[in-house]
Amino acid sequence: MNLSTENTLAQPVGTTLDRYIMRKQAEFGFATGELSQLLRDLALAGKIVHRDVNRAGLSSIIGSMGQHNVQGEQQQRLDVEANIRFIRTLTNGGEACAILSEEEDDLIQTGNVQGKYVVAMDPLDGSSNIDVNVSIGTIFSIYRRVSAVGGPATRADFLQGGRAQVAAGYILYGSSTMLVYTTGHGVAGFTYENSLGEFFLSHPRITIPATGPVFSCNEGHWFDYPQYVRDFLLQCKQQRMSGRYVGSLVADYHRNLFTGGIYLYPPTAKNAAGKLRLLYENFPLAFLIEQAGGRAETGEGPVLDLEPVDFHQRSPLFIGSPELVARLLSETA
Ligand SMILES: O=P(O)(O)OC[C@H]1O[C@](O)(COP(=O)(O)O)[C@@H](O)[C@@H]1O
Ligand SMILES: [Mg+2]
Ligand SMILES: [Mg+2]
């Protein structure tokens, strides 16, 4: 029987994430498989959270926990549940020696002292959308530790700077669940196939269009925005661009990655440094966007050049199509 008949009869299911990671690992002669295993562990935790997100309305994991995290934000049950799932999976996986999470004040030493990597994560992004069935996500950033293997991780392992990330990505729990990541060699996207319980390669080389029709920001903060941001947004409207804002960073970012566009979270009266967190929101998304041909800026320079000093520090974020970010920055001049 010839191949095309075979393929018609039994349509190939595609490349699984596992197989893709193995293939990529083989490309890097020095790779030892630990980073590959860590990526697989993140995908496994993502599958579990995908399951829980999908049936959230039927279970007890909706609603608030009635407590606040280190940023003073009300924690949702699913924030805490996702946090536990990722910490447990990464601890059992053995490759991450420590974790920094949005939902925890300080580092979590996993006990995997032989582990060579540390993970900074936003276990559940878009918390305000959890109970209303709007797309939410998980964001992660991976560094090779600088502290001695065999001992506990240190602050320095997490404060190496955005350009020291060895991998970064996100999982989007939307109409379909997708995992998108980079190890510094381009950006690839995988779609989750429920019935087979596998992520399959669906977007081998993601690049962002140079410009696009969309601007995304919370205009409810209009009166708090710096003048240059207001001027830029007025221009977008005069050009009849479309305003799109889901209110989940991962979802807004993911849309703009494919359509072209710009996401803005400027400094506001409430948060002079913006709302979004540098280590587990802005750094990983900036690494991805630069790998996809886009730009990520703070208004005072590239996000990836910012010196991190604190685990939960915030920074402004202007991210997306390079021509739109350049136009925004031209307003600051
Ligand atoms: O309600 P605002 O001010 O528009 O903020 C929305 C932004 O805050 C976030 O929810 C912050 O992330 P968390 O949900 O992980 O805390 C982003 O996902 C989103 O883009
Ligand atoms: Mg977030
Ligand atoms: Mg979060």
TrEMBL record:
Known EC number: 3.1.3.11
Top-rank EC class of the record's enzyme: hydrolase
Binding-site residues, Mg(2+) 2: D122, D125, E281
Binding site for substrate: D125, G126, S127, S128, N218, Y245, Y263, L264, Y265, K275
Secretion signal span: none
Annotated ranges, domain Fructose-1-6-bisphosphatase class 1 C-terminal: 208-328
Pfam families: FBPase, FBPase_C
GO CC annotations, alphabetized: cytosol
Reaction(s) the record says it catalyses: beta-D-fructose 1,6-bisphosphate + H2O = beta-D-fructose 6-phosphate + phosphate
Sequence ranges assigned to domain Fructose-1-6-bisphosphatase class I N-terminal in this UniProt record: 16-204
InterPro entries named in the record: FBPase_C_dom, FBPase_class-1, FBPase_N, FBPtase, Fructose_bisphosphatase_AS
Family statement: Belongs to the FBPase class 1 family.
UniProt name for this protein: Fructose-1,6-bisphosphatase class 1
Organism: Hymenobacter rubripertinctus
Organism ancestry: Bacteria, Pseudomonadati, Bacteroidota, Cytophagia, Cytophagales
Gene: fbp
